[in-house]
TrEMBL record:
<protein>
    <submittedName>
        <fullName>Sarcosine oxidase subunit gamma</fullName>
    </submittedName>
</protein>
<feature type="domain" description="GCVT N-terminal">
    <location>
        <begin position="66"/>
        <end position="179"/>
    </location>
</feature>
<dbReference type="Pfam" id="PF01571">
    <property type="entry name" value="GCV_T"/>
</dbReference>
<dbReference type="InterPro" id="IPR027266">
    <property type="entry name" value="TrmE/GcvT-like"/>
</dbReference>
<dbReference type="InterPro" id="IPR006222">
    <property type="entry name" value="GCVT_N"/>
</dbReference>
């Protein structure tokens, strides 16, 4: 007997009951981002980092020395895998993490106040510039945090922790009437 599965986002049930119209403080959930984990082999750090930064439609997120997350919405996983394979198997290793990670975009004039309740990072614009990213703890969950705009941050978290992190960030944002929805 054939079985048909319906693909559902892991936060589908968490998002029900939120307002349809976003407030100035809004938590947007990306529906189907493409996310790759990339590790560079010793001696190729500089040229691989330059090559990654030249990829189109991909955001490069620093995880540590010689380790990055690549996130994109308009590029396909196959296209990105081909581009990474072209860099050479002797120079770089990569893995598609798209099904195992969730991307949340948090924005608003007091976004740093919301995140200050969740993480111990200094998020002042002088210390955490646009385009900067780091692995950190957010609400006691390991995540990657990136500053993507003046008052916008993206959080990449493992799928299994996404519901907890979503609920906690929404709780921290109540003071600012934080709304949430799919991007």
């Amino acid at each position: 007997m054939p079985v048909t599965y319906a693909a559902r986002h892991v936060l589908e049930d968490h998002i029900s009951g939120f307002e349809a119209t976003p407030n100035p403080h809004h938590l947007a959930i990306l529906r189907s981002p493409v996310i790759f984990s990339v590790l560079v082999h010793a001696g190729h750090e500089r040229d691989i980092e330059d090559a990654l930064n030249n990829l189109e439609d991909v955001h490069v997120r620093v995880c540590g020395p010689g380790e990055w997350l690549l996130a994109g919405e308009s590029v396909t996983a196959d296209t990105l895998a081909r581009q990474l394979a072209d860099l050479g198997a002797s120079r770089v290793s990569f893995l598609d993490q798209s099904d195992g990670r969730v991307v949340l975009s948090l924005g608003g004039p007091h976004v740093r106040g919301i995140l200050a309740k969740c993480t111990a990072l200094d998020l002042h614009s002088d210390a955490f510039e646009i385009g900067q990213s780091t692995n950190c703890q957010i609400c006691h969950v390991a995540a990657n945090l990136a500053r993507t705009g003046q008052d916008t941050f993206e959080i990449v978290v493992m799928r299994s922790f996404a519901g907890f992190l979503f609920d906690e960030v929404c709780e921290m944002g109540k003071e600012f009437a934080l709304t949430a929805g799919f991007a």
